[in-house]
Automatic annotation (TrEMBL):
Residues 442-452 have a biased composition (Basic and acidic residues). One of its GO terms (cellular component) is membrane. Residues 421-465 are annotated as: Disordered. This is Major facilitator superfamily (MFS) profile domain-containing protein. One of its GO terms (molecular function) is carbohydrate:proton symporter activity. Residues 14-414 form the Major facilitator superfamily (MFS) profile domain. The chain crosses the membrane at residues 12-36, 48-72, 79-97, 109-130, 137-158, 164-185, 229-251, 266-286, 293-320, 326-348, 369-386, 392-410.
Length: 465
């Protein structure tokens, strides 16, 4: 356990890498608000092609988030931080220098890889290098930074309106900051200890056992006990992604413009300011009001807002339609951040069985990104051919179905677990293979008594996080 006593990083380094990773995530996804229309005008992009431009980043993020957890375990957290920073810098600058839609999409895909890996490695570093008492607040910085990144992107979209090349290139700044931090921060002691243990105890027989156990894990996902948890998890991902939140984030200018707002850019900035504020408020409400209460209250409010917006877009005209749309969009965003936006991984960690989280969580996470991509591609197409009101009727219908299903199937004991890792909002596939620092410290007692016994006991201890 020699690595445990060598945590030389100051707290600000750990917080910084999480914040810069969140800014990469938020800015890259948010800047499309200000760049999509100028790109479409310059290259004559159709509605379908605009959807492809948006989705190119999301497909990269899907791959990056799914592979990031496994890459962090194989190569280490620090190398993945460096990879995230470099791909973010290259993707941002390359997108800004692109001279055709195909090049922009390819570079946005590369930037998306950075978005996905940042969501895997940055919260993981916090979970492994911060004392338990500080993990909750430190862990929330990543989510806060995402909303701040989206806000910055919307402000820049208003200030430097039309200059899509500059807007894309400015996305390299958080990547540069993360690169600096990734070069001076130390490797996670948990990864170093895990690597040391693996090197000291690995034998051919153990390798065969590992392969057999891994195959068993994948078979577990199809077992009867996993059907309901996985179905609930997928429905939670549906509630999070297919009720409209990312349509508001990516296409807020279009939504406000179609609703008759004269200054859609200002309205989008105001929406993102509200998004940041409600995220901060939601973080403090989780423990006070309870997860189940917040989840269902939020989902009901979100669904009602979708249905009312759909109705008002049909029956109201002029300024009345515009202002009512803004009011209920703001209420929707507040309800989202106070419920599924904050609680998603809390709930997933509780409903999945311990022996299946490493497989179930990545699948549910992949569903999130897949739904996000589908929505982003088809939103403008549906709005163009069927009208904006139809899109909100669809959002509302999905919300009704998810809310009713979850009411009858979501466990009523949410939040009852005393496991400290439940208070960290990071995917379980990134946590479960890692021992907590406290467990590793406890294992030190056995080093002085029986070194041989200790080497045999460390492997099962790694599965307890």
């Amino acid at each position: 356990m020699k690595y445990i006593n060598n945590i030389s990083n100051k707290s600000w380094l750990i917080v910084s890498q999480s914040c810069y990773g969140g800014l990469i995530f938020g800015y890259a996804t948010g800047i499309i608000v200000g760049t999509l229309d100028p790109i479409a005008i310059k290259f004559g992009a159709s509605t379908v092609l605009k959807g492809v431009i948006v989705c190119s980043l999301l497909v990269g993020a899907l791959i990056g988030s799914f592979a990031g957890g496994f890459a962090a375990n194989k190569f280490g957290r620090k190398p993945l931080l460096v990879f995230t920073a470099l791909t973010s810098i290259g993707g941002a600058i390359g997108s800004g220098l692109g001279e055709n839609v195909a090049t922009i999409c390819i570079l946005r895909f590369i930037h998306g890889l950075a978005v996905g890996t940042s969501s895997s490695v940055c919260p993981l570093m916090v979970a492994e290098m911060v004392p338990i008492k500080k993990r909750g607040i430190f862990g929330s910085f990543f989510q806060i930074s995402i909303t701040v990144g989206i806000l910055i992107a919307n402000i820049l979209a208003y200030v430097i309106k039309g200059d899509w090349k500059l807007m894309f290139c400015l996305g390299a700044i958080p990547g540069g900051l993360l690169l600096f931090v990734s070069l001076v921060i130390s490797e996670s002691p948990v990864f170093l200890e895990m690597k040391s243990t693996t090197n000291n105890n690995q034998t051919n027989n153990e390798n065969q056992n590992d392969i057999s156990q891994q195959g068993s894990k994948y078979r577990i996902i199809f077992s009867k006990k996993m059907r309901k948890p996985m179905l609930v998890g997928v429905l939670l991902a549906t509630l999070a992604q297919l009720t409209g939140i990312n349509a508001f984030m990516y296409f807020s200018n279009t939504i406000f413009k179609d609703a008759g707002i004269n200054n859609p850019e200002i309205a989008s900035v105001a929406l993102q300011v509200w998004n940041v504020l409600t995220t901060l408020i939601a973080i403090f409400l989780v423990d006070k009001l309870g997860r189940r209460f917040l989840l269902f209250t939020g989902s009901i409010v979100m669904t009602v807002c979708d249905l009312l917006i759909a109705l008002f877009l049909l029956v109201l005209f002029g300024a009345a339609k515009g202002w009512t749309s803004i009011v209920f969009l703001f209420i929707f965003v507040g309800a989202f951040e106070a419920s599924i936006g904050t609680l998603f991984w809390f709930v997933i960690n509780e409903i999945l069985p311990e022996d299946s989280k490493s497989i179930g969580a990545p699948i549910i996470n992949a569903c999130q990104w897949t739904f996000n991509t589908i929505l982003s591609f088809f939103f403008l197409v549906v709005v163009e051919y069927l009208g904006q009101s139809t899109m909100f009727w669809i959002f509302g219908g999905i919300g009704v179905f998810c809310t009713v299903f979850l009411y009858f199937n979501l466990p009523k004991s949410l939040g009852a677990s005393t496991n400290t890792t439940d208070d960290i909002r990071i995917p379980e596939d990134q946590q479960q293979q890692q021992p907590s620092i406290e467990e590793l410290e406890n294992d030190k007692k056995y080093n002085h008594k029986d070194e041989q016994t200790n080497s045999n006991e460390q492997i099962p201890a790694q599965m307890q996080a």
